[in-house]
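The records we work with from here on pair a chain with its fold. Here is one such record, which you should read through line by line:
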Amino acid sequence: MKVISYNLNKHKAAHELDRLVDTHGADLLCLQEADTETLPVEIAGLRLAEATVRNRLGLAVYHRENTFTPLEVRSLSLKKSLHDRVLKPAEERMLGVRLRDIDSGSQFIVASFHAAPLTALNSLRRKQIRAALDELSGLGDGLPILMVGDYNYPVFKENLSQTVRDAGYELTLSDVRTYTRYKFFRGHYDFATSVGFTIDSITTLPQGRSDHLPILITARADPRS
């Protein structure tokens, strides 16, 4: 399956979504920093499975309606940074959906994730990621899980990789960096953590109006899953 993850940068890049989905044949679309009150129910044949409602700029997951059926949804408020407490940009930082493949009957979980901003410590973001993965595992015992999004983690990824491995997951970066706005902060911000999936590729797509570049994840559930 093909999954696009995109931080819309305060919804500025929303008009690009139809073209992105059509061009790359995406089966799933995971959004961050979306104005969820104005999101359409359908984008280029993908149906809105769920969007957060308590965020000023929220998360959303779309699915191909003739391929997957959403069964259960879960959002999660994670430990807050000082930025979150003062400016309150995001109450919910993880949105997960359990889906069933219509043809095979198999189930899996996909999630859109947005970690605390760079003003927070990496240690806080690691706690948020671990908490999000623990919550997702409760959506289905032993199901494959794919969590994509903006991890806000451009440096010192060795500690993050170890945290993810300790939780039984794999961290996979895209082929080139995904954030280019500020020279000092350029790097891989948008990537995936997964279990029960083989990640064939993560490709960084051309930049649009957002300060983040969208990524395209090509993945398949492992046979044992």
